[in-house]
Design brief:
Layout (H helix, E strand, L loop, with lengths): L2 E3 L6 E3 L1 E4 L8 H13 L4 E3 L7 H5 L3 H4 L4 E6 L4 H14 L7 E4 L5 H8 L4 H10 L6 E4 L5 H11 L4 E5 L2 H4 L2 H17 L2 E5 L3 E4 L12 E3 L3 H12 L7 E2 L7 H9 L4 H9 L14
Parallel strand pairs: 3-4, 3-12, 4-5, 5-6, 6-7, 7-8, 8-9
Antiparallel strand pairs: 1-2, 10-11
Helix pairs in contact: 4-6, 7-9, 10-11, 10-12
């Protein structure tokens, strides 16, 4: 699998990052098969969060065996220092490790949320305390929604986050306002030499009303190989992107691995995605 430099952290991360949300509500046996599939496929960067159900507990048993072979990232969704500090330490315990390579402020998608996380007594203070104590190697920020790129640009103005995780896919790119915000974020990421990861690569749209939610993703994902290959190919053609977390359902991992191995041109990818009249932003109506 292709590896890309994760900004100034210098880690050569696999371009597919294992999305731990897929482990939120599965048995340990299912988790074990999925994690092994990821490792066999060349993934060396694991991304999880305290908010992902049992995901940290499912990854934990693997850490004594593979900790020195992987880049391990988790997230705190808390906004105040005290609860974030407790959550960071609980994550370390669940993950059965004494240190994280990356701790991310989770789901910071608008300026009000950014104010809470980065202000006095906010979660950023806990993350930096963990970094000072050697519990965390670096601190990053993530977020969903149409305001995420602009919010993350402001975040980088306030603090030199080592990584950013923000949404990108062909349908979001078609929105001129979103594209402008994303391009401004890229310019600042490059200036600071941060790592830029992107999410919602294979999202198709919000689940339609009364739809059978056949996947554990909160959005309806693509589940045919051609369009997954197109979506992955299109995003990875952006050389500023260091990696893509895999979708939040273990059943989609194999198709994402196949997509990375057999990429198509950006033009071919864009043309295929454009033929889907139902393709839309997954952030029109998020379920929280």
């Amino acid at each position: 699998m292709e590896k890309r430099r994760l900004g100034r952290l210098e880690h050569q991360s696999s371009v597919l990052i294992y999305g731990g949300a897929a482990l939120s509500d599965v048995t340990q046996d299912v988790a074990d098969r999925s994690i092994q599939q990821a490792l066999d496929g060349g993934i060396n960067h694991l991304d999880v969060a305290a908010d992902y159900g049992d995901a940290e507990l499912r990854l934990g048993p693997w850490m004594p065996r593979i900790r020195d072979q992987v880049f391990l990232a988790t997230k705190t969704g808390r906004r105040d220092r005290e609860s974030a500090w407790r959550e960071i330490n609980a994550s370390l315990e669940r993950l059965q490790t004494d240190h994280l390579d990356l701790l991310q402020l989770h789901a910071v998608g608008d300026l009000a949320d950014l104010d809470r996380a980065t202000g006095a007594g906010g979660a950023l203070e806990a993350a930096l305390q963990a970094q000072e104590q050697g519990l965390v190697g670096a601190v990053g920020i993530t977020g969903h929604g149409d305001q995420a790129p602009a919010t993350h640009l402001e975040a980088l103005r306030r603090h030199p986050f080592a990584t950013v995780l923000t949404p990108l896919n062909p349908v979001l790119w078609r929105d001129p306002s979103y594209r402008a915000d994303y391009q401004a974020l890229v310019a600042e990421v490059r200036r600071q030499d941060a790592g830029l990861m992107t999410i919602k690569t294979v999202s198709r749209r919000n689940w339609p009303e009364a739809a059978d939610h056949r996947y554990t993703t909160w959005y309806e994902p693509y589940d045919d190989q051609a369009r997954i290959t197109a979506a992955v190919s299109w995003v990875l053609a952006h050389d500023e992107v260091t990696g893509i977390p895999t979708a939040g359902d273990v059943g989609l991992l194999g198709m994402l691995l196949e997509a990375e191995r057999h990429r198509v041109s950006p033009d071919e990818a864009e043309a295929l995605m454009a033929r889907d009249e139902e393709y839309s932003s997954p952030f029109v109506s998020m379920p929280w």
